[in-house]
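Researcher: Quick test of sequence recovery. Tokens follow.
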């Protein structure tokens, strides 16, 4: 019988039945199955690509490992920008300046007119020579114990140079190729030691590079996965995220007047991001949640410097121990405020 809500007339139902019958005769059952299978396959392929890129955004080795000398020489400091920008009298120090992001931070500081940039390295780097605004200091990088040589050296250097802010971009560039002890030492102990030295030297602001998903409570894997194909130290894993969260907590506990931590996902422009991830990531970046969107390293560095300038210029000053986390939307909103051309602070 006819349902009460069926308002279709008899001629309309007859036309619909005829059309459906015609389509069924036009497209054979085997052809219909092929079309449906083809459509399902492409949907699966698209879903796999999206899932793979999203996973890569979290797990790609996104630390700031030192670049080789040839990589430094291929992208030197912009001397012209440094000469043209006015100097506001501020001094910044960078731990990790030989890495991809750290090198961009140095460039941004010079281009935006900082009076002096102190580079804390384990050795002198030719790329930083020849610029009177960049001062290199060789500091011991093996021991991150409280009161150890790195902490003492950072206190002495930063106090003598009158540093206003410290940028910490140091980290293992390829954690999946590292062992757990090295990851903890480079990503937690050494940056913390430098921060302790900065606190003793009277530094006002710290800007820290970690990674998306940083969480001191993350649970590390007890062993490698998939027959060793996924090491327990890989970026985005429990141990990696725990290290990033621990160093954030350690520096926050020092109660600087202000402290900002930056948690990008996939970094574009570093030698550690596979070309395939970068290409596909750019193509579908609009589909990804803000938390997992790409971060060009030059934009990230400029954003870190811009935030630092605002923290130091705050009137009234930021409340003691102010702590800002830039991850997801807050991070990309800050990116939107950066300008392509250098602006003095």
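Model:
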């Amino acid at each position: 019988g006819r349902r009460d809500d069926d308002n279709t007339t008899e001629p309309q139902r007859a036309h619909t039945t005829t059309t459906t019958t015609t389509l069924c005769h036009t497209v054979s059952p085997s052809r219909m199955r092929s079309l449906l299978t083809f459509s399902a396959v492409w949907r699966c392929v698209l879903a796999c690509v999206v899932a793979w890129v999203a996973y890569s955004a979290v797990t790609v080795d996104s630390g700031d490992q030192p670049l080789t000398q040839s990589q430094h020489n291929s992208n030197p400091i912009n001397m012209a920008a440094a000469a043209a920008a006015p100097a506001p009298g501020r001094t910044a120090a960078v731990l990790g300046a030989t890495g991809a992001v750290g090198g961009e931070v140095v460039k941004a500081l010079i281009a935006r007119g900082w009076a002096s940039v102190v580079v804390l390295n384990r050795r002198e780097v030719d790329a930083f020579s020849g610029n009177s605004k960049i001062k290199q200091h060789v500091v011991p990088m093996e021991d991150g114990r409280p009161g150890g040589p790195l902490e003492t050296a950072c206190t002495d250097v930063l106090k003598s140079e009158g540093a206003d802010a410290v940028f910490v971009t140091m980290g293992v560039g390829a954690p999946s190729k590292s062992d757990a002890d090295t990851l903890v030492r480079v990503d937690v102990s050494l940056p913390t030691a430098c921060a302790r030295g900065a606190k003793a030297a009277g530094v006002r602001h710290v800007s820290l590079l970690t990674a998306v998903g940083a969480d001191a409570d993350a649970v590390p894997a007890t062993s490698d996965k998939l027959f060793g194909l996924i090491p327990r130290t890989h970026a985005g894993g429990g141990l990696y995220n725990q290290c990033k969260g621990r160093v954030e907590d350690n520096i926050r506990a020092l109660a600087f007047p202000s402290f900002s931590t930056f948690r990008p996902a996939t970094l574009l422009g570093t030698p550690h991001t596979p070309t395939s991830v970068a290409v596909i990531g750019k193509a579908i970046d609009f589909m990804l949640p803000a938390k997992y969107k790409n971060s060009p390293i030059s934009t990230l560095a400029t954003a870190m410097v811009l935030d630092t300038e605002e923290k130091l210029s705050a009137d009234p000053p930021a409340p003691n121990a102010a702590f800002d986390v830039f991850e997801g939307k807050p991070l990309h909103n800050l990116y939107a405020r950066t300008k392509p051309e250098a602006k003095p602070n």
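The chain has a mean pLDDT of 78.
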